[in-house]
Amino acid sequence: MPNSKVFPEWERSSHFCKKAGKNPGRIVISAVVHKRREGCLNLPSMQLRYYHYELAFRHPFTISRGTKTHQPTLIVELEHRGLTGYGEAPAISYYNIPVEKMIYDLESKRSFIERYALTDPERYWHYLHHLFPDNSFLVCALDMAAWDITGKLRQLPLYNMWKLDPSRGPKTDYTIGIDTVDKMVAKMREMPWPIYKIKLGSPDDLAIMTALRKNTDAIFRVDANAGWTLEQAQQIIPKLKELGVEFVEQPLEKGNWEGMKVLYKESSLPLIADESCVHEADVEKCRGFFHGINIKLTKCSGITPARRMIEAARGFGMKVMVGSMNESSVGSAAIAHLLPYLDYVDMDGPLFLKEDLATGITFDRGIVQIPRAAGLGVKYTGLYEKV
After folding, report:
1. What is the largest CA-CA distance in the chain?
2. Domain-by-domain residue ranges, the chain?
3. CA-CA distance, 132 to 112, in Å (whole number)?
4. CB-based burial of residue 184 (10 Å sphere; 0-12 exposed, 13-18 middle, 19+ buried)?
5. What is the three-state SS of 82-111?
6. pLDDT surpassing 60 at residue 2
7. Which residues, in sequence order, are CB contacts of 44 under 8 Å at separation 6+?
8. Model-level pTM?
9. Which of 28, 14, 37 has its CA nearest to residue 116?
10. How far apart are the two ends of the chain, measured CA to CA in Å?
11. Strand runs (DSSP E) across the chain, as ranges?
């Protein structure tokens, strides 16, 4: 009979059991069968679990592309050396990566994910990037979880690992989706805030902004979600400046570079790229067409490339924003730790939800308290009922 002594934690977390005449004991790892070869039991470095949610919004949310009442999202959970890291990837319909696709890819490459010997989240991102070349959303969630674990292993919050000052960073805006003026005003009164991001892209954009200005002295930011033509943008932007708008996000379709070249030269307001700046290579493309970029962690594939995008944009003299894709506090925590790098931030996702998936982030009229605990610094709670 093999020796029944249980392996110490560092051996149980390694890729395989060395031939030492030991038996790892009764260890259940993520419902995966691990085959014994030549007297050894092949054990994964990490254990993977995941949860699929349909997060209900407090109010229907409308942009120029459509309306939704729930946010589908995937939470991934990686366990390594007795510590658990979490990551999140919300699904966005027009990027054609539903949660079901993420789960299929996870299961098809589960063994590759689990057997990786995690030592450096940046190296892990490169591995994942090649493992899932067509699923940046899933790579983002796994990258986030790897950073969470790494921070916990080092007993440091992420901002501390990056040598950032948590007292620095911009206030987050609060987004008001397209609706009737009365309902948009009601949402502002329900959530008094120093900065509002107003979703536009309807025939009544100027009338909406004029009416909203009568009800608040707050700073306005405008996001057209690529909903304007060049001519419309040329007409409305000077009037938006008069109404106290700080900047305009993605005024034209993402492929309309000729139009953006003209608008960049003429605009009296800064122009921030969103749909036009998805991946790292897009940062340089936006130079000379936009004054800044809005990075979405899910779209760019995680914390690791986002930090490189921030550095690249700074090198080009561009403003930097990180935006929300309606993440819960799991994904929003990753944004929070990036705050000291940023000029602007839109991380109001948890405020939109009827019920959050984690605790640890607090909001006080735009001021975000960055979690001080190790890793992402949030405590995953889930909902009362997991899907």
Report:
1. 83
2. 1-43, 52-155, 161-380
3. 11
4. buried
5. CEEEEEEEECCHHHCCCHHHHHHHHHHCHH
6. no
7. 15, 29, 30, 32, 34, 111, 114, 115
8. 0.87
9. 14
10. 43
11. 36-37, 40-41, 47-63, 66-80, 83-90, 174-176, 195-199, 219-223, 245-249, 271-273, 292-295, 319-322, 344-345, 358-359, 362-364, 367-369, 379-380
161-380 CATH: 3.20.20.120
Angle between helices 136-154 and 99-108 in degrees, nearest 10? 70
For the stretch 263-313, pLDDT in tens is 999 999 999 999 999 999 999 999 999 999 999 999 999 999 999 999 999
Written out in words, the top-level CATH class of the domain with range 52-155 is alpha beta
Q: For residues 256 and 278, is the Cβ–Cβ distance under 8 A?
A: no
Report the distance separating Cα 110 and Cα 8, nearest Å. Answer: 24
Encoded tokens for 92: 């966005």
Q: Percentage of the chain surpassing pLDDT 70?
A: 88
User: What residue type is assigned to position 360 of the chain?
Assistant: G
The two three-digit tokens of residue 56, written as one number: 């209900």
Distance of alpha carbon 179 from the chain centroid: 25
SS3 36: strand
| DSSP secondary structure string for all residues of 336-369 | HHHGGG-SEE---HHHHBSS-SEE--EEETTEEE
302: tokens are 């995680």
